[in-house]
Amino acid sequence: MCDPISIGVTGLVLSGVGAAANYSMGIQQANMQAAQAQAAANFQSQQAQVQFNQQAQAQMQAAQQAQAQQAMQQQQFQAQQLQSLQQQGQQQMFQAQQAQQQQMLSIQQQSAAQQLSLQQQQLSMQQQADMQYQQQQAQLRQQNEARKFQAEQAAKQANLQIEQMNAQLADKFTQQKEAVRAERKQLLKKFETDKRVYQDSKETAMRQEIENASAANRVYIAEQAKLEGKRKEAAFEAQAILAKSIGAKGTILASGRTGQSVGLLLGDVERQAGIKSAQEAAMLEQDRIAAIIGMDEAFEQNKAADAQAQSQVGFNPEMPYLPEMPQVPTFVGFQIPK
Asked: pLDDT-based confidence at 257, cuts 50/70/90?
């Protein structure tokens, strides 16, 4: 708590300071007054503290005496209360013992009755529990048998479906295999037919080429024979011209002519023989050229006939690509019911 004197002195100091500030008093004078006021306030505070301590000590002594008296009175009251309580406790204990004995007897009787009832209830509950357990076991057996039957039926149905699926797979595999076999057989048959047609056309072309060569050879032989005949005729004609020339010269010489006319006549005979020989040679050359032309024509005709024969030859077939046989399908396994 704040001392009123101190509060008053502080208010006076603050008032003096405010007045000093308001009236512009000197700082030194204000400090001196504040120091004096503080000293007076401290002295008053010390005096008030001494008085307060004395009063507090006296109050404490009085309180201690009052507490000692109160404690003595309380001890006496407690002793009386304790004695009364002991008497009441003895009476209550006696009554409690009697009541307890009665309660124990009643409790024993109730306990025996409750125990008998509890045993009966336990026996009934045990019988009900046994009956419920037997019923539950029977229901479980029925449920297990029903589940087992359903599982067997489901497995049979699944196995039937699997068997049908496997049969379909086997049928499909058989059909695919037969289809591939038929296709391979058809391809091979077509290849054999094409190969046979090619071979026949090749042999026909070869026979035609042989026939064409034979025809050309016949033309060659005929032209050469014809040319050889012309050559022989030319040779015979040359011999005839030579013989006529010799005969003419002999006739002229045998006529007994002399002079230049004999030379002219002989020269004329030789010139006539030369002209005829040149004509025969020219005719033989024309026959040779005609023979060459005939053989060339036969050669070209042979080439054309050979080309025509080759054009009739078909393509040489290659071994066709045969489709692979289908793989064996993976069959589905059967289910075993648990």
From this structure: low
CA distance 46 to 39: 11
User: For 242, left (φ over 0), alpha (ψ -120 to 50), or beta?
Assistant: alpha
Two tokens, residue 229: 């005949």
Digit-coded pLDDT (tens) for 21-61: 454 567 777 678 777 877 877 887 788 778 777 887 887 88
- Could you tell me if 234 and 281 are in contact, meaning their C-beta atoms sit under 8 angstroms apart? yes
How far is Cα 66 from Cα 74, in angstroms, rounded to an integer? 12
Q: Where do the structural domains in the chain lie, given as residue ranges?
A: 179-311
Between CA 27 and CA 33 the distance in angstroms is 10
- Which residues, 6+ apart, have CB-to-CB distance to 254 below 8 Å? none
Give, rounded to a whole angstrom, the gap between the first and last alpha carbons of the chain. Answer: 97
Sequence-distant (6+) residues with CB within 8 A of 178 are none
**How remote is the C-alpha of 146 from its chain's centroid?**
44
Q: What is the DSSP letter of 320?
A: P
Average model confidence (pLDDT) across the chain: 78
User: Other C-beta atoms within 10 Å of 183: how many?
Assistant: 12
Rounded Cα distance between 186 and 238, Å, is 76
Backbone angles phi, psi at 323, to 5 degrees: -65, 145
Q: ∠ CA 129-130-133 to the nearest 5 degrees?
A: 85
